[in-house]
Specification:
This protein is 52% helix and 12% strand. It is of the alpha+beta class.
Length: 253
Amino acid sequence: MKNIFIFITTMPVIFQIYTMDEYSIVRTVRGNHTSYTLETEPLPVIKIDECNTCGEASTTKCSACKLVFYCNRNCQTKDWKKHKKDCPKLQKTHCGDIAHMRTLFSAYVKKAEATADETRRWNYIKTAILWHLKTIIRLQQDIACSKDISTQGATEKVNFDHRQMLSSLKLSQEQLQLIVQESKLKAFEWAKHLTDKDKLVPPFEIRLYGMKAFIQSLKKDEEFYPESEWPQKRKEALQKLLPKKLIKSARKR
């Protein structure tokens, strides 16, 4: 964590920057007034089924991140200078990084909007909703690891944002509910596997949805339960999210 202080003589203003991974919380003091803002690094753009270099249709993915497409080795080589910086970030998606999962959800929704092929459209919609469910599960897991009660509204906020995006696809409530029911178990099994293997990213990103405890302590370790408790708290959060019959079904597989 880095602290940077800048003093401007014409008016007593202090900017204090707390940097964590891919985002910063900036504390600004003007006289008796203190404000906090979040600054995030731009996430890599994900193009679904399109070559990241030339834009042509493609089904071949980067073997590391498994999210970026290339139509041939030549295009992949041309893009490597840029992609080698993005690839490690994108790999976090498969370890439950919430911001990257939301980016992927958005990419699939936009792809569903753009395609004229009805079969592809439904596949994109189903994949988008699957990533939505995974995101909601991960939010609940990381909320369980945080002592900051102001993060409790994170799930409602993301649900609202995602529903706003899905509204452009003009799905009926019945269609939406059917896809959700079909995808719940798959999302649950995905999260359970990562939880059991202890492969999930740290829960610190949940700060983006609440800063109460952070502002009080300004120390990330006091804001969260001990790291040794995260796996159990995440498992407990997982148990609360689905009906018992689905949990039993997941155990049998």
